[in-house]
Amino acid sequence: MSQASKGKSGSDALPAREELAGLLEKARQLSAQTRCLIDQALARGISHRLKADSTFVTDVDLAVEEHVRSALSGWFPSHGILGEEFDACNPDADYQWIIDPIDGTRSLRHRVPLFGTILALHVRGQPVLGVIDLPGLKRCYSGALGLGTWCNGRRLQVADLARDDTLEQEILSIGERAQFHKAGKADVLEHLYRSHPSVRTYCDCFGHCLALEGSVGAMIDPDLRLWDVAATPVLAREAGCSFHWLRRDEKSRKGGCYDVVFGKPRVVDWVMRLWNRQPF
Amino acid sequence: MSQASKGKSGSDALPAREELAGLLEKARQLSAQTRCLIDQALARGISHRLKADSTFVTDVDLAVEEHVRSALSGWFPSHGILGEEFDACNPDADYQWIIDPIDGTRSLRHRVPLFGTILALHVRGQPVLGVIDLPGLKRCYSGALGLGTWCNGRRLQVADLARDDTLEQEILSIGERAQFHKAGKADVLEHLYRSHPSVRTYCDCFGHCLALEGSVGAMIDPDLRLWDVAATPVLAREAGCSFHWLRRDEKSRKGGCYDVVFGKPRVVDWVMRLWNRQPF
To answer: From the CB of residue A144, how many other CB atoms can be counted at a distance below 10 Å?
Structure first.
């Protein structure tokens, strides 16, 4: 029951399978190039500066986003591009590429090898294609509507918990504590810790990829911008995961404000009941 | 001021530099072999069972420990061997090899690629040589007294925080929440979270290796058995880290009970003040 089948004709038509496959191939090529840029930068040394919003940006973030923008503008001059570090290009176009050049800048700065590059295509607001590349693990997660989710050459298919599997055996992955506080969900985090024996801070896109593999039962990631989560909905659903927006505020700031949970369906259901059960 | 220089003669003499270099080379060879065993097992599929102490063991833990024991017994028949999964061999020998075949069995079972194999040599109770191999990252951390700490072919030297660096910019790495509870230190964990903006659960030997790289300011790891931490003291000190035992109870159970902190000296000092400041 691919979502692509909904709108094959009419003004809300999504790209046909062949077009999507071509776009996915281009996105994978780009990710191979950004991985080279990042590996070279790590070998050379990275400089960083504090941005106006009190987060850091490195010269690698800027170089990777410039490279991706330049390639996409050459291939698809009519498409829009939205990225973390520069202004939006063609913001009214139906096809919007969304870039997070380094998701996990704090990890990159400290050489924790769990950062990644995110690239996604949304068509009239719907995520249709996504790539998350993890240079430190040499793993590229990619997929598109109806085409499945892949890690390098291996197709991913997450199995739900079997009836006799207990939730306690699963690892739950979460973003950093500060994200829960900023989202006004510090109490949910406390309740998660009290309710589950293995909650680990596998933050940023590394935690997303662990959920796509079924290595964690669910990833719970609040207070995201659009580029942090642009690739995940299509990758998660194509891998057989449940994906839910717990908050979807597109307007309140640049990049919006999103809280998400995704993973094995039974685990996601459990998290959603806990998330919505307030006050504790 | 190498600790080896203390006892070059007399009954408490530590191995000479040349002997240590030879032993380290053997330990590195063994780690290359265990990595192959683990990679093959991951490709083939892993089975597991619950142990009497309610933790899991996999067929990989057993196969790796058996392989290491067999090689060590052949090379050094008079040495002792202490491992997590089998009985001690030559427990009264001066030279004791300590093995954790899979540190992070929960991660291995779930294919989170952050588990590792630990091998250490203690001479009359003093850690003199250590290897931590991370198959998922293809990184082998190894070193010995006076010979430095290395990651693959790169020597590690952790720089302390400079005077104008703030502690807030560092990532702190911790073991799982349950370890703090078992160690009776749940209040320390809460205080860590309240006092520092970036505390992440990089548990098991992956967190140890991040501290050896200087990627995290410190690793705080309570409720360990000897094999979990057997390689770390020598690797940490040879890499320029501070290393402190917060608890060192060798007798209360098989493998003892240890709480440790190690990393950049100024960060470790801060953690130790917090650890010892009770009640909060």
So the answer is: 28
